[in-house]
Amino acid sequence: MRFLKKILFAAALCTAAMGASASPAEPKNGVEYETLPTPQATESGKKIEVTEFFAYYCPHCNVLEPQLAAWVKKQGDNIVFKRVHVSRDDSVAPQQRLFFTLQAMGLVDKLHTSVFHAMHVERNRLNTDDAVFDFVAKQGVDRQKFIDTYRSMGVSARVRRADAMMQGYNVTFWPMIAIDGRYITSPSQADQGSKSARNEEQLNAQALSVMDVLVAKAKAEKK
């Protein structure tokens, strides 16, 4: 019986240790996050700007989305949250323009999750303009109004801005999260210190914990 108690106690300690490492309270620069060599301009005033670099086709971005949405809701007025759809090649261009068109039309909150569902559950690649137009029309969006916005100079400017931000933040993989133009982290990087995550949800949870610390750090530095 005494031996069994020792085993159970050891197991409890291991579980506690894993839980603690899964939520790094003191993430280290160069390990769980990076400090940008050149801070990037933000537009959030006294609030902390949090920017997600993502792509609709990215399976990791798809898994992160519900956890990130819950985190953003929890942060409330503490942050200003932005998304930037990254570029890659011509096959991704329609998805990128889809996002920035939804953004220009004020439809991201309404259709963002639906786009992920279409791509990762329904296997709709959305890799041509016509596929995108058909998709949004089925969502009840005015097809011609969407097409006009999709092909507008305003959306083209948003795409160019996204490309410039990718260079400024040195975005080479995604999802990646930037905190107030100064710090960057990601689910894979947030696990570098402990390497304790056993699945993608745990990786995401670690990243969100690191983001909590970085938001607090950036807020303190604004004072």
From TrEMBL:
Specify where it is mainly localized.
Answer: periplasm
Localization, per the record, is:
Periplasm
The record, for InterPro entries, names: DSBA-like_thioredoxin_dom (IPR001853), DsbA/DsbL (IPR023205), Thiol_disulfide_DsbA (IPR050824), Thioredoxin-like_sf (IPR036249), Thioredoxin_CS (IPR017937), Thioredoxin_domain (IPR013766)
Q: Name one GO cellular component term.
A: periplasmic space
- Outline the extent of the Thioredoxin domain: 11-167
The UniProt keyword set, sorted, is: Disulfide bond, Periplasm, Redox-active center, Signal
A single Gene Ontology MF term assigned here is: disulfide oxidoreductase activity
Q: Where is the signal peptide?
A: 1-22
Entry's Gene3D superfamilies? Glutaredoxin (3.40.30.10)
Q: List the disulfide bonds.
A: 58-61
Query: Per UniProt, what is one Pfam family of this protein?
Result: DSBA
Q: Which family does it belong to?
A: Belongs to the thioredoxin family. DsbA subfamily.
What's the name of the protein?
Thiol:disulfide interchange protein
What organism does this protein naturally occur in? Janthinobacterium lividum
